[in-house]
Prior knowledge:
Elements: H1 3-29, H2 36-39, H3 44-56, E1 77-81, E2 88-92, H4 98-102, H5 104-117, E3 121-125, E4 144-148, E5 154-158, H6 161-171, E6 176-178, E7 184-186, H7 191-198
Antiparallel strand pairs: 1-2, 3-4, 4-5, 6-7
Amino acid sequence: MNPLLLTVLLVALVSTACLAGVSVARKSCGEGRITAGKAGSMNRDEIFRMLSRVEKMEEPAPVMGAMCYEPVAMPFVAEYVCPVCGEKTVYSRSDDSYYSITGLYETRALFATLDSVSTLEMTLDETSLCSACSADSDSTHALLLRVTWEDERTCAAPVTAEDLRMLIGFMSGRLDYETVNEGTLPLRQNLDRIREILGMDEEGGAPCSDEGCGASCPGGGCR
């Protein structure tokens, strides 16, 4: 056999073995965690099991994040340009939505991360921030996280950047989540908030519609 060809074959075999070793090592390191890959297409039953896991396992110790940040001067007004209709809405510091607008870049980035680690069908609804799109609405100017479950039922809840950080940690299979200053906090103390955002009760169910029985069905929502 050609010596050069033999060398290429040997290098290929060694590389394949190394890659296999890395794959096994990664699986070993991730053991005991519920990852997006393991969860597959998430439904209420799987989310319920994930919530139960966080509730039962020992809380990790919180890690203090950075404390010294130079304050940034905030603008007097915040402008929001609607990605749907193109309308510009201006908010002053006295408006409730002012800080939602100034932190929108971060919030969108956090949602993109959340969407990448979860297979739940979710959207970040900015409609209420637009004066044109929300002209006929009485709702408060807040960002909404809309979740569509496998049975086509939906829920919507106002969310903050902190809520999205908690969901990223939860959907990644962690027992804690990363804070704004790069510390970590346990998820267990925030499970009620996570259930509220996802439209689930403590039994893992979701309230029936107004036309239904009005009860909650344990372990997977209304059947």
